[in-house]
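User: Can you predict the 3D structure of Methyltransferase type 11? Sequence below.
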Amino acid sequence: MEDSKRIVQEGYDRLGSRYRTHYEKSDPERYRHWLNELTKRLPARANVLELGCADGIPTARILSQHFVYRGIDLSPVQIKQARRNVPKAHFEVADMTALTFPEAAFEAVIALYSIIHVPLAEQPALINAVYRWLRPDGCFLCVVGDCEWTGTEPDWIEPGLRMYWSHTDADTYQSWFIETGFTVIERHFAAEGATGHTFFFLQK
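Assistant: Sure. Here are the predicted structure tokens for Methyltransferase type 11:
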């Protein structure tokens, strides 16, 4: 495994569910609002894929009540917890950039704050793969970077916990999405302290 991906895996392995509880303090309802908007657009029993599912809360827990849900995460610890938290959903440990699915396999793909842990050079191919995996009119819900930056933080959430990110700016992401064939339904800044990320709701 590449060094950057090992940093991500080991960081989330170490954090476990403390990652979720840390961010729940700042905006516990943000995910629920985004997922409610997605749910309104999907047919019953739609096939949904989440890239970077963490411990399954809240996304897998909410969506698996209505849809056929599959969650992917690089961290074995997160997947173990997700299987315990949401037993009726399907989870597997995998690198999202190495996945293979048939074309038009899903009505929706979700990647909330997860693509930004993938080296930037690998992200355009991943976006193209997501487009192929989606059925016509399928939805892609993602949170990506707002400004361009690649690097590591040595004390993220906990002292001594190293984490890696890689992302370009929001306008570049939008151009990648449009060039791939997506229509931008919604885009807005998702604040996080003094900085933030960019939320996109896209449709094939």
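The longest strand covers residues 134-144. Strands lie at 47-51, 68-73, 90-93, 106-112, 134-144, 149-153, 163-167, 183-192, 195-203.
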